[in-house]
Amino acid sequence: MIFILYTFVIDCAHLARMPLRLLTKLQIFLAYLLNTLFLPIAKILDIKTINFLGFSLKGFNFRTLHFLLGEIFVRNDYFFQTDNPKPLIIDCGAEVGFTTSYFKYLFPDSSIYAFEPDSISFNLLQKNITENKFTKTTALNAAVSNYTGKAKFYTSDPGNLRMSLRKDRLMGNEVSVKTIKLSEFIKNKTIDYLKIDIEGHETTVLKDLVRSNAIKKVLQFGIEYHHHISPTDISQFSQFLSLLENNGFKYQLSTRSVQTYNSFQDIMISAYRI
């Protein structure tokens, strides 16, 4: 309970600093507060739906849904600004649709392509899109990669947030999933915002976007970089950032502190054109 309260305070501190209207911040705060207070009851009753800000999202357990509410809506990890009232957004690693709903909250008239390779999560993603009446939103049951075809995908319990194309990210069940070459998918589009949270496969995808020149079609990125997935990983974060720098992007970084060497660390990258 102490950790939950600590996380609540830290998340709300992030919310207070965001460039949002005061009324919007208050609405998000109240939604987070109510769902935080509801956590013990939801666990007892095994509730798997979370309601907030006019949305109703189904998931695998309330605790994970509450975590995503804090990360995405309260901390605003994927916040971005644009002059386009109808931005085109690509959501890679959409899971059950939390980031998709966040983008619809910011930009109700946006067009969104949401990629999710896990079939069980994808079914909930489709259901959440339909039941929340998201327009101009297309869900694709595939992983983004540097080629179109099939790949090994590692899963565990339903809704696990670490499912990945990398075996060392999640030592679980191996299944075959469809892959889509992201550079081909976006080559004839202008992408206002490209969100990438694909559990360690982000370097492969970004390198292909650079190699194919498709990166020129992207105006802004929101990337969750997975640093030191394995303790034996070579540190290559500077090389990843150089891919952005060499293609005209500036960026801001955000991460939680880590006290031990060779520890796994999520690093949020918000990249934008100079």
UniProtKB/TrEMBL annotation:
<dbReference type="GO" id="GO:0032259">
    <property type="term" value="P:methylation"/>
</dbReference>
<dbReference type="GO" id="GO:0008168">
    <property type="term" value="F:methyltransferase activity"/>
</dbReference>
<dbReference type="InterPro" id="IPR029063">
    <property type="entry name" value="SAM-dependent_MTases_sf"/>
</dbReference>
<dbReference type="InterPro" id="IPR052514">
    <property type="entry name" value="SAM-dependent_MTase"/>
</dbReference>
<dbReference type="Pfam" id="PF05050">
    <property type="entry name" value="Methyltransf_21"/>
</dbReference>
<keyword id="KW-0808">Transferase</keyword>
<dbReference type="InterPro" id="IPR006342">
    <property type="entry name" value="FkbM_mtfrase"/>
</dbReference>
<feature type="domain" description="Methyltransferase FkbM">
    <location>
        <begin position="91"/>
        <end position="251"/>
    </location>
</feature>
<protein>
    <submittedName>
        <fullName>Methyltransferase FkbM family</fullName>
    </submittedName>
</protein>
<keyword id="KW-0489">Methyltransferase</keyword>
